[in-house]
Amino acid sequence: MSYSLAELAALVDGELRGPAGLVISGIAAVDQATPQDITFITAKRYARLAATSQAAAFIVPPEFADIPRPLIVVSNPYLAYARVAALFAPPPGRWPGVSDQAYLGQGVELGQDVSIAPLTFVGDRVRIGDRTTIMAGCVLGQEVTIGADALIYPNVTILDRCRLGNRVIVHSGTVIGADGFGFVPLPTGFHKIPQLGTVVIEDDVEIGANCTIDRAALGETRIGKGVKIDNLVQVAHNVLIGDHSIIVAQAGIAGSAKLGKGVALGGQAGIVGHIELGDRVQVGAQAGVTHSLPPGQVVLGSPARPHREFSTINAHLSKLPEIYQRLKQLEERVNRMASPLTEEAES
């Protein structure tokens, strides 16, 4: 599929600087683009490549509007790139209708134009909304609900009574609704606590590959609207994640923690249980958060500290060998000065 440069400029609400009828057939990185592709520039190091790039046209911010090539000038080139890329992205494959190799339990309710691929198990009383795609090898437990326009990639497991909203995307290998980690310690071992709750995932959430979102002990584990979760993330029982938060790969959130709206957790961050992170809190990569944080705070390190405090401590750490040597020299000088006084007192 091809588009004119003018059509693309209108799509991204950008300023066209070049031939309106220039035909664009794809999108690629600035150093890999062909004469049929459009590319985008977000930083000076990429702008230098424009002179040698074979791209037909460029999406640029205003500061690079003087590049002598066909341009679409926008305030946010990364967002414009995402919108243009969506035009050229191949749609995910859909099985036509419901495969006769899929198992559907009793009382299943399917919306219009639902796709269910072979080797999928759909339990009793499951409800699936219009235009939702369930790819091969998925398991949907009893009374699962999935909204409209959802996309469930192969080998996803969604266990009993979990509820997913509209336009939810779940990538391969993810398990939603496994038992939360709850045990009573006894002298003879551990006694399992039944996990009677469920998981609720609201509209427009995307969950990466091989994530685990545990059902609540009682009540709900809830993922708010528009939340984006990277691969290999653990969300424990009764966790609440506020709308439009983002969780990066290998982060772990312990039971009953509450995250406000717009929270960002960096890769491998850890959040202990039963604490609250206020709206817009940012937690750096590999940080360990052990106490509640007020809205808007930025923390780094383990244990996590406010950004400025962590930076000061970290800057001093590199000087510890020098400080140690100076302290050792001072100690030796003090000992030498004290020696004559000690000898005089003893005599």
TrEMBL record:
Residues 23-87 form the UDP-3-O-[3-hydroxymyristoyl] glucosamine N-acyltransferase non-repeat region domain. It is an enzyme of class 2 (transferase). The active site is at H237 (proton acceptor). Its EC number is 2.3.1.191. GO terms for molecular function: N-acyltransferase activity; UDP-3-O-[(3R)-3-hydroxyacyl]-glucosamine N-acyltransferase activity. Catalyzes the N-acylation of UDP-3-O-acylglucosamine using 3-hydroxyacyl-ACP as the acyl donor. Is involved in the biosynthesis of lipid A, a phosphorylated glycolipid that anchors the lipopolysaccharide to the outer membrane of the cell. This is UDP-3-O-acylglucosamine N-acyltransferase. The gene is lpxD.
